[in-house]
Write a structure and sequence with these properties.
about 750 residues, alpha+beta, Beta Polymerase, domain 2, six-stranded mixed β-sheet, five-stranded mixed β-sheet, globular
Length: about 750
């Protein structure tokens, strides 16, 4: 891919650029927007001149990237001329000598403002230092309520970068893919960009686990012809009835992506051939003027369920209770003629537009009213980031992701008002959701008129009354009780504020006690106090003194009873917090594109992560620790995904070069029919047939079924897979799987 553009002449490059620009104008012409071709042309020419002579990693002219982003903005998001111009100009200020003032002068303040917003959050979410990472992420999120087009164009920019990621070195691919999987894909989902979210997840999967991605893709391609045939048979009776009603509609099918199939296989712990819902059918209705689109959806639902048997637990009504990102539809899963479950999604054209183009369509259909779910979500996110003092990017990311990943429940107030809450919210979360002061004073709740503690986990449909007391104050253990970002953020803010106040009070008390002894308040005297009370930091010392945990007066007099008050120190330095320095070795350690994990280096140059216990054959990556050691994780390990997005400059590509010299610990779970001698057969296969050592085993039986876990030493995944296959040959064994 890197060499694709190397042999092009200047004339050929220019022709390629002009053809791409004409394609952009064609996309724009196919929209309903008032055509403002002149300003778009000027923006293109301005960007083309600014980026002249600059190349991307693939070797193509740099201007091809802004053109591609602009095409995504208009074709896949449905945005207009201002967004197209901003997309064309989005890298000009960052990469060239032009300024936002130049853009405002050449175009208009709105385009300049959007470009400025994009420039502030350039270079990905994460910078080189933690404080910058947190600030960059705050900027990214806080731009949403101000001008939504900033985040939309940023999404388009990330999507094109992922589509062209193949030209990057392996370590860079892992960093960008990890960051995309960790935050951009969930953010796209929350903003309603279903298609973009799906593509971002799939592309991340492709670069993180290329072999597994290709295997699943090949499996999908293998079964697709049969799926297409099933689809035609499935929709035939539906179309006949809908045509009889005179409905206008379109029916399409959607086949799961490799990543979606992978997640299903992981969640259910099943092989590909047991993933039965690969096909989804979508019916998009075109209501006549004056017709009720929700009523049409329910009529269509009745048509489908009169033909096919519906799954009793798989009907989802997002018509009367839309998702927070604005998504509306009616979902029903039915049994097809071939005995397989098929999900049917029923929407109107308007609903489909919102489902596919997300936030852009939401703004298109807004009628000016305030208080929509998305508006409320933006407001809550801004409040969370404004009112919480985060010291590092990981903390801010973790809290924000509570807002991204949460499913929803619907809870009622005593007066019948419905409140949307994240799933697994507690009564204390609900109190903070209603008002922070209510949360601070909460002592319990009544759920459906029954008294419950603040830790009670709410369910959809609960009616909740919060009980309060004026004497109640927030406690540290509440952090573990609440699950919502709003509650956690507010509690952290309160505790940090309280700690700072107590800390200052304790410091003043120490100063006064030393002054009574005519002793200076300096680092030497503070060190003596710390050693006497066996405390590591001055922060904790001052806090404990203010809280009365330390008998200050008697202690001070004991420490300094033989000390003369005439000794003074002219220069002193007080270090707050932990005084140990962090190592910078990792930053200065030269990184390779790929490290080869050999037997001789095990335990010295690299270590295997305890969290996922990779073994040779697993897809892995390396994380460069402070001491220069590489910690090896499975590539789909949750910790690895977090490291990729947060410490991308420390991620290295890794592969196994280890021969069958070392043994690695792996765990397998075996279950089956409990009968005499089955354990003996299992142990025989493991120890005699495969000469594998067993570290430990644990077996339980219940109602004629046994389940056991075995920790065994193997050389690689091939050994482990062969062992699992041969254990399955034992007649009583029904399931064997590797567990982490």
């Amino acid at each position: 891919m890197k060499n694709t553009y190397l042999n092009l002449t200047e004339e050929e490059e220019e022709l390629m650029i002009q053809n791409e620009f004409r394609a952009l104008l064609d996309d724009y012409a196919n929209t309903a927007h008032v055509q403002k071709v002149e300003i778009i042309t000027r923006a293109f020419e301005f960007a083309h001149k600014a980026h002249k002579g600059t190349k991307r990693c693939s070797g193509e002219p740099y201007i091809m990237h802004p053109l591609a982003v602009a095409r995504i903005v208009v074709k896949e998001m449905g945005l207009g001329s201002t967004s197209i111009c901003s997309a064309l100009l989005h890298d000009v200020v960052e990469d060239t000598d032009y300024t936002c003032e130049d853009i405002a002068r050449e175009f208009n303040p709105k385009i300049a403002s959007i470009v400025e917003g994009l420039t502030k959050i350039s270079g990905g979410i994460f910078g080189e230092r933690a404080s910058e990472q947190a600030e960059n992420f705050r900027k990214l999120i806080l731009t949403i309520p101000e001008d939504v087009r900033v985040i939309l164009i940023k999404m388009a920019d990330r999507l094109h970068n992922m589509r062209t990621l193949g030209s990057m070195p392996p370590a860079k691919q892992l960093k960008i893919a990890g960051e995309t999987q960790y935050i951009y894909a969930p953010l796209a989902q929350r903003l309603g960009f279903f298609l973009i979210k799906t593509e971002l997840e799939d592309l991340s999967f492709k670069y993180e686990q290329p072999k597994l991605y290709q295997t699943i893709k090949d499996d999908i391609d293998r079964v697709t012809p049969n799926i297409e045939k099933d689809y035609e048979e499935f929709i035939k009776p539906i179309t006949e009835v809908l045509n009889g009603y005179g409905y206008k509609y379109t029916i399409t099918n959607r086949i799961k992506t490799p990543y979606s199939v992978f997640k299903k296989m992981q969640k259910k712990n099943i092989p590909f051939d047991e993933v039965y819902d690969i096909l989804a059918v979508r019916i998009i209705l075109k209501p006549k003027p004056g017709e009720n689109e929700k009523a049409n959806c329910w009529v269509t639902y009745s048509v489908i369920t009169s033909i096919y048997k519906a799954h009793p637990d798989r009907t989802r009504d997002f018509l009367n209770a839309p998702k927070t990102n604005g998504y509306e539809a009616l979902h029903v899963t039915v049994m097809a003629q071939n005995g397989k479950w098929i999900e049917v999604q029923i929407r109107s054209e308007r609903m489909n537009d919102i489902a596919e183009k997300g936030l852009a369509a939401h703004w298109k259909y807004k009628t000016g009213e305030e208080g929509s779910d998305l508006d409320n979500w933006f407001r809550s996110v801004k409040e969370m980031l404004d009112n919480t003092d985060y010291s590092n990017a990981i903390e801010i990311m973790d809290t924000f992701k509570l807002n991204l990943y949460s499913n929803e429940i619907f809870v009622f107030t005593p007066k019948g008002e419905i409140i949307k809450m994240p799933a697994k919210s507690t009564a204390l979360d609900f109190a903070f959701q209603l008002h922070t002061e209510l949360g601070e004073r909460c002592i319990g709740a009544k759920v459906d008129h029954k008294l419950v503690p603040i830790s009670y986990v709410l369910q959809s449909g609960n009616q909740v009354e919060i009980l309060t007391s004026k004497s109640q104050k927030p406690k540290q253990e509440w952090i573990e009780i609440v699950t919502t970002a709003k509650a956690k953020g507010h509690l952290r803010y309160l505790f940090k504020k309280e700690f700072k106040s107590d800390y200052q009070k304790g410091q003043k008390m120490v100063e006064e006690e030393l002054a009574q002894l005519n002793l200076p308040f300096n680092s030497d005297n503070l060190q003596k106090i710390l050693e006497y009370y066996n405390i590591n930091s001055t922060n904790q010392l001052f806090y404990d003194i203010s809280r009365g945990k330390i008998p200050l007066s008697s202690g001070i007099r004991t420490i300094f009873k033989n000390t003369s008050g005439s000794k003074l120190v002219n220069i002193w330095k007080l270090t707050f917090g932990n005084t140990s320095k962090k190592k910078d070795d990792a930053k200065n350690t030269p990184k390779k594109d790929t490290i080869h994990l050999t037997a001789s280096d095990a335990g010295t140059a690299y270590k295997l992560a305890d969290c996922c216990q990779p073994i040779p054959g697993d897809s892995v990556l390396g994380f460069l620790a402070d001491d220069g050691t590489v910690i090896v994780h499975k590539i789909n390990c949750d910790i690895a995904v977090k490291l990729q997005s947060s410490f991308g400059n420390r991620i290295v590509s890794a592969d196994w070069a280890t021969q069958q010299v070392l043994s690695f610990l792996a765990s397998i779970e075996i279950s089956g029919i409990d009968k005499m001698g089955v354990l003996r057969e299992i142990v025989k296969v493991i120890t005699d047939d495969y000469s594998i050592n067993i570290k430990n085993m644990n077996i339980q039986t219940k109602d004629g079924i046994f389940k056991g876990t075995f920790s065994v030493y193997v050389h690689n995944t091939e050994d482990l897979n062969n062992l699992c296959l041969n254990l399955l040959k034992i007649k009583s064994v029904k399931s064997v799987k590797r567990i982490d």
